[in-house]
Amino acid sequence: MNNLAAVILAAGKGTRMKSNIVKVMHPLGGLPMVSWPVNTVREAGASRIVLVTGHQSEKVQDFFEGQTDVRFAVQEEQLGTGHAVACALPALLGFSGMVLILCGDVPLISTATLEAMVRQHRSRHAVITVLTADFAQPNGYGRIVKDGDGFIKRIVEEKDATDAERRITEINSGIYCVESDFLTVAIPNLKNDNAQREYYLTDIIKEAANLGLLCQAFPVADPAEVMGINDRAQLAEAGQLLRGRINKALMLAGTTLIDPLTTYIDQGVRIGRDTTIHPNVHISGDTEIGNNCLIEPSAVIKGCKIGNGVIIKTGSVMMDAVIHDDVAIGPMAHLRPGTELKEHVKIGNFVETKKIVMGEGSKASHLTYLGDAAIGTNVNIGCGTITCNYDGVKKHRTVIGDDVFVGSDVQFVAPVTIGRNSLIAAGTTVTRDVPPDSLAIARAPQVNKEGWKLKKK
Q1: Residues 79 and 153 both lie in one domain
Q2: CATH of the domain at 420
């Protein structure tokens, strides 16, 4: 929709968040709060998006770097919403059409609502359409004042409202659709003669009404969509609502969530059909999970690529790992970045991996650390095995060939290479390469002192 642009107001600090981080950059469902309205207007068809920043503008702009449809305007002083839009006007030069105006702290607005609002705006040839909601207790919100025909005459802020106006329950959501030609004329005419000494964007409605131009309301079906976030309690409430949307979409697409209320999945995570996820699982980042997987309670998965038929057992933690089909992990395993497990690998309880590739059919069943290693196919790693990859200065690699059997309590002092089909005896500390088809054993001989216990008595 080339004749649709958007302005998103994100310059405020958000003092009620009690944070060193600007409000709109607080994470919500895996994304900064301001990302939600940006993505929504993009999905609604906005071809040009102007983000008005102020506090910590560099942090906000850095996040959107490379998103070519996003332009920036800086509001050095926060002098009201009208002033913020005035700061955005230079970035709209050359544009003609409809302009959506939203706040960066209203993340729950849906694409469908914005699309319906734009359709009504266009079909009725309105100059301004205001998204409204009906609140039984509208404290803190601007009120919608209409004429006898039901069109908007003005929006009055609560601090400037009369007692009669404060009894109005239809409120201003702060979301507008405005014709650009009118916007560019009306914004420079705003005055700050109000209780706050600010330039109110809402005053353009009164100007349009005085000119006999059509200003209409578009009531939102779900008032939760216009919920603003001012503190961490509201942030948590919004997060719960967003997770509900994410989880519902996944379930409708074929994923089983045993308890959606205690399953925490971020926006952008992709999960295949017939995968079952148990309670208290956290999945975030650029994670993709295949079909027919089982994820048991309290697993934490971030930025992983997981194939089909994978079992992730209770309490396992995984980050930036690649898991191929039919792998079993855990319980209580820890897969760190750079881990790649080929088909039919088994990683058991209290096994930690980092920067390893483990070949098809290999297994490390318990109590093991494998780091900076290449492990072949059908390798058995015994309990208590460690790849000693750090010499105090540099990291070194361990290479283990196919069909190697590693006994319990083995240490590989890297760099070292183990040839295929070798056997490493339990208790061995490997400091040299082992040829293929060999037995490596390096431990002190056993000494039995007969009668020692009787002498001690």
Answers
A1: yes
A2: 2.160.10.10
Domain carrying residue 120: 4-226
Instruction: State the Cα–Cα distance between residues 260 and 456, nearest whole angstrom.
Output: 64
Number of domains making up the chain: 2
The Cα-based distances of 182 to 80, 89, 136, 214 in angstroms read: 19, 12, 33, 12
Confidence category of residue 457, pLDDT binned at 50, 70, 90: low
67 with 195, same domain?
Answer: yes
Distance in angstroms (rounded) separating the CA atoms of residues 291 and 307: 7
Query: Could you tell me if residue 452 is inside a domain?
Result: no
236 domain-assigned:
no
Averaged pLDDT for residues 289-315: 98
Residues 194, 343, single domain; the answer is no
Based on its alpha-carbon atoms, the radius of gyration of the chain, rounded to whole angstroms, reads 31
Residue 417 lies in a domain: yes
Pair (284, 207) in one structural domain = no
Query: For 368, how many CA atoms within 13 A lie in the half-sphere containing its CB?
Result: 28
Does residue 401 fall inside a structural domain? yes
- Kindly tell me if the per-residue pLDDT of 192 is higher than 70: yes
What is the rounded distance in angstroms from the CA atom of residue 413 to the CA atom of residue 2? 62
CATH number of the CATH domain containing 170: 3.90.550.10
Mean pLDDT (whole number) for 29-41: 97
Same domain, yes or no: 308 and 267:
yes
pLDDT(90) > 60: yes
User: Residue 395's pLDDT is what?
Assistant: 95
Among 40-44, 346-350, 415-419, 442-446, the range scoring the smallest mean pLDDT is 442-446
Stated as kind and residue range, the H or E segment containing 295 is strand 294-295
- Specify the pTM: 0.91
Mean pLDDT taken over the chain: 95
Per-residue model confidence (pLDDT) at position 193: 85
Catalytic (active site) residue 366: yes
Q: Do 150 and 276 have their domain in common?
A: no
Q: Which helix (H) or strand (E) holds 391?
A: none
Kindly state the tokens that stand for 290: 């295949």
Select from 209, 226, 243 the last residue of a domain: 226
Euclidean distance between CA atoms 112 and 70, whole angstroms: 21
* Active-site residue identified among 83, 334, 344, 366: 366
User: What secondary structure does DSSP assign to 144-211, as a single string?
Assistant: EEE-TTS-EEEEE-GGG--HHHHT--EEEEEEEEEEHHHHHHHGGG----STT----TTHHHHHHHHT
Residue 326 neighbours by CB under 8 Å, 6+ apart: 307, 308, 309, 310, 343, 344
| Cis status of the peptide bond prior to 331, with omega within 30 of 0 | yes
